[in-house]
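Notebook entry, structure prediction.
Reason for the run: the old model in the group folder had no record of what sequence produced it. Starting over properly, with the input documented here first.
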Amino acid sequence: MVNESGEVDPEVEKTFLEKYNCLVADYDAVVITGSWLPGFSNKIIPEMVSNAKKANKLVFADYRSVDLKNSFISKTIRPDFVKINMDEFRETFLDRNNNDFDPNKKLQEISKKYNNTFIITQGSEETLIAEHGNINSVMPQKVVPINPIGCGDSFLAGLTMGILEGKSLKEAVEHGSKCAEKNAVNLRPGYITSGE
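New structure, fully documented this time:
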């Protein structure tokens, strides 16, 4: 998905999903991030998640609001890993009638209900991890940022790579943090070196 202006023809969604379903078979995981363009229906992201899970693929999600809520179809048809920041988490799951929002409690509840994992980044503050109802955290290294643009995407790329390489969840989160840190200290977003 992309964050660009302009509206697409409704037929594009059908073509997109057909091509997506063909490609999914060739990969171990699907990363869905961003938002859909006007013209796509609000069913496209849940359908992408559903089709990937039916093909036994890991799904990494980095999007929010109704799109994320609609992606939780069942205990098995849902994103395996949700990586969003705390503001996005609050925007998505805050009950407007409840002023006592407890992020840890909500993370525990949702990750247990859907048997999946949430990773909630908070910039230089601790990254919260909720794995199947169990809460943990990882503290990122402090860096002096030059340009924070792309840090979330860099984190997600590192996290995904870590999981696919067989690292533990904590190791994969730490790897994601390192990628975000390297991104933050570069002027050019998304440009990081491969060294540890």
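Summary: The domain at 91-190 is CATH 3.40.1190.20 (UDP-N-acetylmuramoyl-L-alanine:D-glutamate ligase).
The old model has been moved to the deprecated folder.
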